[in-house]
Amino acid sequence: MLLWLVQKKNLLEKNYQKKLIKTEAVPLFCDQSCFDKHWVLQLNEKEQVNHFICLICKQVANRPVDIDCPEHEDTEEPLIAGENCLKQYLKNNNNTCPVQPHDGPRYSKNKPLKKQIDELNVICPHQFQQDLKITKNEEGETEGKTSQIPNCNFKGKMKELNEHLDSCPLKPIVCCNIFDLVIKYKELLQQTIRDYEVWFFLFYDMKDKIKDIYFACCNE
Questions:
Q1: Domain 37-140+147-171 has CATH 3.40.50.2300
Q2: Distance between alpha carbon 206 and the CA centroid of its chain, in Å?
Q3: pTM of this structure
């Protein structure tokens, strides 16, 4: 019986740890959409970028795939799409090919093209978005204020972007509602207390049997 109580205690502790794990934050940068063409064109020629355009969203393909269905195998132009962009299109259009209306399109990853896109020179995407916002504002509103805004001078390869974003000075800050957080931990604490109360009362109810076992062992 003592062994059973110990096992019950360990199980409650494991459940408590699982509940704590569920409250951890999720990563911020997990977007797999295609890349903004205007952002990529900041450091690259249009003629070069045109070879990487997703036929669905008309932006630079992220994780490019070749659409190689037999129905349009005679097409001379390369049929390129971003992997996530294509999957989303198929999901929203009953698995219909974006090139010609037929079911069950075939596609495969284009690794050589991905390597070329990875070698493109880019600036920080957060800096690009910030510059766009400043440009859209009226000149009188931004005058004398732009010097107070932090900047990011990153210029590097596309393949280096994820590493940069982890330490970018313009990295968005996760904001949370402190009251929601307090409520969640309160509920977690209340459930944990209830779990341990069950264990305590089970142990309390068994105290007489534990005494009998103890005295029996002593008399042997």
A1: no
A2: 49
A3: 0.61
